[in-house]
Design the sequence.
């Protein structure tokens, strides 16, 4: 079930970007917000954490978020119209990789299975970007 939700998130993120550009002329940070807004409205969810910023091609950044014990989480990235490949790696408090998404797309997603809670770290890697692209990473409690 969690994999179906994850696939639906990815599909909505990909189609949301195209719809936003034509329907509202959203660009940059506004496009990233629009994509996440569509995901959240579609599934009736709120982010447990959020991070935003700008990165050029080849650059990366990290951020932290908390995971509740016994709950599964989905961590999703999105970027603006200048970006065509954003990757995502998630590590637990010990630095062990719990998931990654190196697909050639601009909507990376990592599922954190239910387990022990604690502080997790994401690394967003801007692989392909036309200049200095806006991105966002949000985590969502997917229940247990």
Sequence:
């Amino acid at each position: 079930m969690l994999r179906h939700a994850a696939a639906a998130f990815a599909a909505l993120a990909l189609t949301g970007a195209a719809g936003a550009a034509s329907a509202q002329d959203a660009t940059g940070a506004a496009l990233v917000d629009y994509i996440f807004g569509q995901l959240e409205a579609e599934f009736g969810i709120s982010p447990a954490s959020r991070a935003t910023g700008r990165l050029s091609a080849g650059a990366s950044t990290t951020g932290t978020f908390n995971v509740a014990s016994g709950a599964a989480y989905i961590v999703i990235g999105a970027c603006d119209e200048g970006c065509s490949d954003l990757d995502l790696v998630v590590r637990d408090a010990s630095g062990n990789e719990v998931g990654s998404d190196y697909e050639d797309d601009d909507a990376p997603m990592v599922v954190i299975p239910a387990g022990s809670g604690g502080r997790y770290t994401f690394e967003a890697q801007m692989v392909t970007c036309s200049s200095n692209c806006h991105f966002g990473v949000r985590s969502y409690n997917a229940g247990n």
